[in-house]
Amino acid sequence: MNNKTLPPFWISAIPIIVLIGMLSINIIFFGSDSLAGPSQIALFTASFVATGLGIWVCKKDWECIEDAINANIHTTSTSIFILLAIGMLSASWMISGIVPAMIYYGIKLIDARVFLLSACLLCALVSLMTGSSWTTIATIGIALIGIGRAFGFSDGWTAGAIISGAYFGDKLSPLSDTTVLASSAAETPLFTHVKYMTYTSVPSLLISLIIFAVAGFVGNDTVVQDTSEFENAIRGTFTISPWFLIVPIITGVMIYKKVQSLIVLVVSALMGIIVALFIQPQILMQIGGGSSDGSVTVSGIYIGVMKMLAVSTAVDTGLPLLNSLVATDGMAGMLNTIWLILAAMMFGGVMNACGMLQSFLHALFRKLVHTRVGLVSSTIMNGIFLNLVTGDQYISIILSANMFKEEYKNQGYENRLLSRSCEDGATVTSVLIPWNTCGMTQSTVLGVATLAYLPFCFFCYLSPIISIITAIFGWKIHKKELH
What we know:
It is a single chain. The protein is mostly helical. The chain contains 24 helices and no strands. Helix 6 packs parallel to helix 8 and helix 8 runs antiparallel to helix 10. It is globular and about 70 Å long. 54% of the residues are buried.
């Protein structure tokens, strides 16, 4: 790494210090709501500071900085469309009853002796299908906490199983905003990124499942909690059928056949819409405002479909817990993430154009990044460090990808190694930090202190460890072929 033309470290550190300071203040005042605007403003402010330093101290031309910003944002254009398609898909699968069917049949698997194992698997499945660990934990997770207490398990063990499963599913779901964000920031095709993460995520989950299985069998023998109320509420609201599983199966086949991710998402969303139209018209009518005589009308269905795909919707199931699960945000729910991406791409573009990211990276990791193990380890440690100081996994992913992208390229490693390392470091560890938005949110939602569940989130520990182990042995790590 050549540092002769790079700005001094203290100059490069100023925008990062401004960003970290503002993000920390935002976390204090806004908590998890900081992603709805304050974090984006912090990124814009830090970008303006970096631009000023770049022009007046580093003597960079504005045109050069502007070109770098435009180039950075251009790389995310496809991902923005993917995020909007994900909003449509998540909503259509929920309202059509596809996701509720998955939850319904998954709940029936829960048994006292295999509760922790089942809880982890169920959360992994729901999170994989919805692409949201937060939604999974805030809905199924709350129910599982109550069941775990009835079985005699401590809240820490139960929360650890819930979070481990939820973050596995979130990490590997093509519907997840963090998955899309990591693949986009590292310029890796979405499904290439997802497939490559299985080499570290699946072993981490399997080891976690073994631990939860052993813990479950040595736990207390108690009376099984009755889940019939939850199951009846799903049955009473949605038409449930195992035939719905055909839709995710077709989606899986398309992914396996390496169909372009945007096509997969749009086609899958259309399948969800079709199921909703023919199987759940009463739900669409409820979303569309209903009719005075309770009949199904073309206008009501049309309005219901448009609202389902575009904006936040709510379905009354008669059970508050289930209501929060089946509520959707549509395409509008992705706008804060898109806003964050654009702001972060601006910050990354300015920092790259001025050489500040390279300078900061060189100062922190110059002795480590020259080897395969050092490069992967540095990326992971950087993600964890940024989670600690910025309090947000999204920013950690974006900054890690921007800081290490050139080094991976210079050493000839594939972009998928960078995107996986970013997720193994930033995504899964965010929930372990009490002042991080993820840690704060999950602790509040589950009613379990972060330090109480922290020792039992085995998947979140194992992912970065196994990622470094794979780097040590070089398993499935290749350099680009030269043409």
